[in-house]
Amino acid sequence: MSLNKGFSLVEILTVIVIMAVASGFAVNSFSKMVANNRLQKAAFELQQELSTIRPMALKNDCKVMVRFSEAACSVYVDKNGDGKIQIDEFRESWEAPEGIVFKLPSDNPPTSAPSGAVLPSGGKYAAGQWSDYLQFANDALGRVNTGSVYLSSKKLKKTTYCITSVNSQTLKIYSWDGSKWNAL
User: Fold this and answer.
1) Using one digit for the tens of pLDDT, what is the confidence trace for 106-134?
2) Considering the domain boundaries, does residue 1 fall inside one?
3) Which pick of 7, 93, 130, 149 has the fewest CB atoms within 10 Å?
4) How far apart are alpha carbons 9 and 76 in whole angstroms?
5) Does residue 77 lie within any of the structural domains?
6) Where in the sequence is the domain holding 22, given as residue range(s)?
7) Which phi and psi angles does 64 have, rounded to 5°?
């Protein structure tokens, strides 16, 4: 019969080290999951915001244009019909959440765009006809010009989301997981 009751110091330290290592992995995984959820939420919020612009063009009976910058997009109502963005035509803006920007990821960026989209070039925040501005027409269908914009997180080096106009009326979202595009 042993007189020792309980655990030795070595056993306790071993358990503490194992728990510390396991919690380190858990915190890192949780941090990436939160960053990915924030990025995905921002992509869906932007798609929702862009979807509200079509009725604005029809209601005002004029083109509505969206210009993208690094972490925001600005909406302009082309009241005089000249097709140019002017300060006095500014309507509203949408700012990306902190840490989310309009660009491709820094590590392992996609080498090809999703179906029907193009990649931005030359430091542009958007691609295709959207590299100048996204435009909703005031015709009966509220058509949108073709192009795409990419959202990335400063915390996620391989993930990005693409919002693109596949045809003149539909905005679609794709996600890049570091190796392939997935339609959402």
Assistant:
1) 777 888 888 888 888 877 889 988 888 89
2) no
3) 7
4) 69
5) yes
6) 9-183
7) -120, 130
